[in-house]
Design goal:
Elements lengths: L1 H15 L4 H4 L21 E6 L14 H10 L4 E3 L5 E3 L7 E2 L5 E5 L14 H13 L6 H4 L2 E8 L2 E6 L6 H4 L10 H7 L13 E7 L3 E6 L13 E6 L3 H10 L4 E2 L4 H7 L5 E7 L3 E6 L17 H4 L1 H9 L3 H9 L4 E2 L24 H10 L6 E7 L3 H15 L3 E7 L2 H9 L5 E6 L10 H4 L13 H12 L3 H18 L2 E6 L1 E7 L2 E2 L2 E2 L5 E2 L4 E2 L2
Parallel strand pairs: 1-10, 1-11, 15-16, 15-17
Antiparallel strand pairs: 2-3, 4-5, 5-7, 6-7, 8-9, 9-10, 11-19, 12-19, 13-17, 13-18, 14-18, 20-23, 21-22
Length: about 525
């Protein structure tokens, strides 16, 4: 059966990677981790960064995409950030927070001096306004992250106190992402729901304009507290889903930075004397989400779906058993990614005990038996929604070929990324390609997605035992105990087969050699605060 599987996918391999044989054999050419470039740069110029999709809303409370986070990295600073080594450091906060002995009161001090792009001063009241909005705004993607916080108040001009239901270990890490982004209270009041079209934060660059599907334009913000370290006049972000087109534009000089470059394009870039590669291990995961109960949209309790996938876990397990993660990695990603079967990255602050080698192996015979036991008539028709990138198209084609042997008739529906998010959030799908850029604390990879009615639980998963483990993992500080909790949680999630984890990307960014000062850390963001041209 194993030989048959390899033969099947070999046919797909020929059709997908025709002319790329030399690339498959040269994956080892990519060197070690390279996150920074600190060569001196001159002042002036505009940097054009190519993204692999169009970001969703430019509102930190509502946004969900990695490409959106990369844009925010240029204009919306957070209370905390991570450094090159994955350590949380203060950004708009003046120091790391202090926590009471019982773990239920957290106090943070706000940096003095910064102004928002509209000139409004940053203070404790502004921080409170943003944190309350992140927690309470209907439809907030930050609601689950801040749910343990019962009250937020300014106890002084630059002091904020948060009271918690119970100790909440991930809180500092949560505030090192979008939940820690502070928005101008004046802009929030002025624009309300339309803030996404007029975002105003503290950052090295300020928002100028957005032309949907074409560009997002930022200019250097004269109000920025560290403006002397900002060398560029501006940054333009352009969504270009096709990696080949991104690479061609890098070669021509029309682009200076290509974000989230795929392995084939990375290999091609290595032969270009005018290009350089940045890379770092990922904190996230990629896989496929299965709709088992999303009938009312995100943040709602699961309902009943009358589909074979939703009704019977044996059907979902059969689908997973039809997949060969190692072959998928070789065929689509030149062997340059890592197979995965759980939400927590080895780069996480709490390293998982479950390794890639523990992932379920392909077993067509068992998959067929499970479908028979479930009383499913084969071939079972299922639709897979993918984004429109060529790489995701190849993922869909390989999965289509693999699961066919087990008795699944998988159709593919490429969908523009923002549209796919909207549709899957609403529950309008069978299965879809689902991924997450990852967070340093493992809670950031599980709570929003796997908790019943979680803010980003698009699968309709509802399991009291998983909820209990998520809650326990967020309150326990001992690393060994947390590892055990998250390993048990991973096992339960795997048994549910509602999110099938397939691989972990590496963060590959290709840039012109005329550009320096870029930062690419484990969170996958392209940081351009100190970027500039070398000549």
């Amino acid at each position: 059966m194993r030989r048959k599987a390899v033969a099947l996918v070999a046919v797909v391999l020929v059709s997908l990677t025709s002319g790329c044989a030399s690339l498959q054999s040269s994956a080892t050419q990519v060197g070690g981790v390279r996150k920074t470039d600190d060569r001196p740069v001159r002042d002036g110029g505009t940097l054009t960064v190519a993204l692999n999709s169009d970001p969703d809303k430019l509102d930190p409370t509502l946004a969900q995409t990695l490409v959106g986070r990369t844009v925010f990295a240029g204009m919306c600073e957070k209370l905390y950030d991570i450094d090159e080594d994955g350590v949380v450091v203060p950004q708009l906060a003046a120091a790391l927070p202090t926590t009471s002995a019982d773990g239920r009161t957290v106090t943070l001090t706000v940096r003095r001096g910064p102004r928002f792009s509209d000139g409004t001063r940053l203070d404790a009241a502004a921080v409170v306004t943003s944190l309350l909005r992140h927690r309470d705004l209907p439809g907030s993607a930050r609601g689950t992250e801040l749910a343990p916080v019962t009250s937020i108040e300014a106890t002084g001009p630059y002091t904020v106190r948060m009271r918690l239901k119970q100790p909440y270990v991930p809180l500092t890490g949560v505030l090192a992402d979008r939940a820690g982004m502070v928005m101008s209270p004046a802009a929030l009041k002025k624009y309300g729901k339309d803030f996404t079209n007029h975002p105003s934060c503290v950052g090295p660059f300020r928002f100028v304009e957005r032309v949907g599907g074409d560009r997002i334009v930022l200019k250097k913000d004269p109000h920025y507290y560290d403006a002397d370290k900002v060398h560029l006049d501006g940054v333009v972000y352009k969504p270009i889903p096709d990696g080949n087109v991104r690479l061609a534009n890098l070669r021509s000089g029309d682009l200076q930075v290509g974000d989230q470059m795929g392995p084939v394009d990375v290999q091609s870039s290595l032969t270009e004397p005018g290009l350089q590669l940045f890379n770092s291990p990922s904190l996230g995961y990629q896989g496929i989400g299965l709709n088992v109960g999303n009938v009312k949209g995100l943040g709602q309790k699961p309902g009943k779906l009358d589909t074979p996938i939703a009704r019977d876990v044996r059907v979902r397990e059969a689908f997973e058993l039809a997949i060969d993660r190692d072959t998928l990695n070789r065929v689509v990603f030149q062997g340059m990614y890592e197979p995965a079967c759980g939400p927590i990255s080895p780069q996480s602050a709490i390293a998982p005990g479950i390794k890639a080698q523990d992932c379920p192996k392909r077993d067509i015979a068992k998959a067929k038996r499970l479908l028979k036991e479930a009383g499913v008539r084969t071939p079972l028709k299922i639709e897979l929604k993918t984004s429109t990138t060529p790489e995701q198209g190849r993922v869909g084609q390989v999965l289509q070929a693999m699961v066919k042997e087990a008795g699944f008739d998988l159709s593919l529906r490429p969908t523009e990324y923002a549209t796919m998010l909207s549709e899957t959030d609403a529950g309008d799908y069978d299965i879809f390609t689902s991924g997450w850029s990852g967070r340093l604390d493992p809670d950031g990879n599980v709570a929003n997605f796997l908790k019943t009615a979680g803010a980003m639980n698009a699968y309709g998963l509802g399991d009291p035992e998983i909820d209990k483990l998520i809650a326990e993992g967020s309150t326990v500080s001992d690393p060994a105990r947390r590892t055990g909790i998250y390993d048990e949680l991973t096992r339960r999630v795997r048994d549910a087969h509602t999110m099938i984890y397939l691989y972990r990307q590496k963060n590959y960014v290709v840039a012109s050699k005329d550009v320096a000062g870029i930062r690419v850390y484990g969170d996958g963001l392209v940081r351009v605060t100190t970027a500039g041209y070398t000549r």
